[in-house]
Amino acid sequence: MSTPARRGRPGYDLESLLQVAVKLFNERGYDGTSMEDLSRKLGITKSAIYHHVPSKEELLRLAVDRALNGLFAVAAETESFEGKAIEKLEHLVRGSVLVLVEQLPFVTLLLRVRGNTKIERAALARRREFDRLVTELVKQAETEGDVRPDIDPAVTARLLYGMVNSLIEWYRPRRGSAGTELADAVCKIAFDGLRTQGG
Amino acid sequence: MSTPARRGRPGYDLESLLQVAVKLFNERGYDGTSMEDLSRKLGITKSAIYHHVPSKEELLRLAVDRALNGLFAVAAETESFEGKAIEKLEHLVRGSVLVLVEQLPFVTLLLRVRGNTKIERAALARRREFDRLVTELVKQAETEGDVRPDIDPAVTARLLYGMVNSLIEWYRPRRGSAGTELADAVCKIAFDGLRTQGG
DNA sequence: TTAACAACCGTCCATTCGGTCAGTAACAAG
DNA sequence: CTTGTTACTGACCGAATGGACGGTTGTTAA
Questions:
Q1: For range A50-54, the mean pLDDT
Q2: What is the DSSP string of chain B?
Q3: Entry pTM
Q4: Do residue B145 and residue A196 have CB atoms under 8 angstroms apart?
Q5: pLDDT in 10s for each residue of chain B, 199 residues
Q6: In this structure, is the dihedral angle defined by the CA atoms of residues A106, B162, B136 and B86, taken in order, positive or negative?
Q7: Which of B186, B192, B196 sits opposite A195 (nearest CB)?
Q8: Residue of A116, A146, A163 lying closest to B28 (CB–CB)
Q9: Using the beta-carbon criterion (under 8 Å), do B156 and A116 form an inter-chain contact?
């Protein structure tokens, strides 16, 4: 059923190890977490970690790639859409929130990468590509008259995703919560504002 | 005039050193920056740094305290205000954006603190206090009928400041830019949304 | 029973880390 | 020239870091 009867000695595999690692990286920061810290948390020795993964950085790479793949999957889905740009934009935002919620630890790690190594810089490059995509959509929606023209589209786009991405700072999954409610809240405030609608 | 003729051997003082340090901390992350890295950037030896500051953490403390003092000054100003809660809230947001812009490097460092040490935890505690203040204001504004009641005020508050704080991720000061325009943009989108208003 | 398999341990290593300390260099005022 | 003041150097230290390596233990399938 849930356990497909794995061969060999039981213990961590790469997946279960990655979960713990990413969680710890988020708590103390990637650079602030030593492999000793991680091994202590796992309950195994440091050298055992290197049986599963060739380096500390590889753990980071696996995590941020998972986050980026999730986000780009939503982006691809959005692009193959018919309709007005503002509808595409809302779809992208909703999808992004859902990815944030479902892959919270991975996305959290991604959004904190600073570009110290080749791998981190590659992640930043993909992030920028995603941001460009959002900006283009906002621009188009403005051209179509659905987004307020009194603010630079690039600024609007960044504020929008600033709000979306800030979820990682405080959102914590509760059992039974679908994430769609959260996406609703984000879309309401981002698109129509927190003020009571006059009308 | 601009130089009040300092005594002693010329070079860095605590202030000028702090500027460079905080900038580097923001580029590579606090944990990702060694005192050797910093000394290289400064053009002096590592031990020279310890003439100005007793420890690496003290640099962090000085920086985050400066950011927190700026934010709490605005908060105090806001509390001594007369008027509706929503007006207070807008004043707080505007003031926060201005502090963010004027003290960008310090606030940036503050918002990335993870709580690994006593000093970091103290900073996080003060941040939470500030967040409580914002939430209370949003709640009150909702009671007064000025903030949409269909979203949990705590969520609204967090999304609002998620947007505000996201400025540190992309805003870079340009000469001649006052920051008030940015505050305008933030308030417009946060309070009234990015969608074109149905007149 | 045995072979394949996968997870794990103990020991070791070169390097880097934050930090110390005793002394030196460069300036201003008297 | 001296004195006070401030910034800096170079050599050093114990601890922690990411990682290497050869050997071991526990589990399943044949």
A1: 98
A2: --S----SS-S--HHHHHHHHHHHHHHH-STT--HHHHHHHHTS-HHHHHHH-S-HHHHHHHHHHHHHHHHHHHHHHHHT--S-HHHHHHHHHHHHHHHHHHTHHHHHHHTT----SHHHHHHHHHHHHHHHHHHHHHHHHHHTT-B-TTS-HHHHHHHHHHHHHTHHHH----TT--SHHHHHHHHHHHHH-SBPP--
A3: 0.95
A4: yes
A5: 445 678 889 999 999 999 999 999 999 999 999 999 999 999 999 999 999 999 999 999 999 999 999 999 999 999 998 999 999 999 999 999 999 999 999 999 999 999 999 999 999 999 999 999 999 999 999 999 999 999 999 999 999 999 999 999 999 999 888 899 999 999 999 999 999 986 4
A6: negative
A7: B192
A8: A116
A9: no
**Cβ contact A146:A86 at 8 Å:** yes
A42 min Cα distance to partner chain B (Å): 19
Distance of alpha carbon B187 from the chain centroid: 17
Q: What is the pLDDT of residue B12?
A: 98
Q: Strand C: which nucleotides have any atom within 7 A of a protein Cβ? A: 4-11, 16-22, 25-29
Q: Is A147 helix (H, G, I), strand (E, B) or coil?
A: strand
Tokens of B47: 């031990």
Task: In whole angstroms, give the CA distance from residue B1 to residue A33.
Answer: 47
Q: Which residues from chain A sit within 8 angstroms of residue B188, using beta carbons?
A: 148, 150-151
Which of B30, B89, B119, B159 should one mutate to test binding to chain A, selecting the residue with the greatest count of A CBs within 10 A? B159
- B108 Cα to chain A: minimum distance (Å): 12
| Cross-chain residue pair B162–A166, CB shorter than 8 Å | yes
Q: Which residue of A has its CA nearest to B159?
A: A163
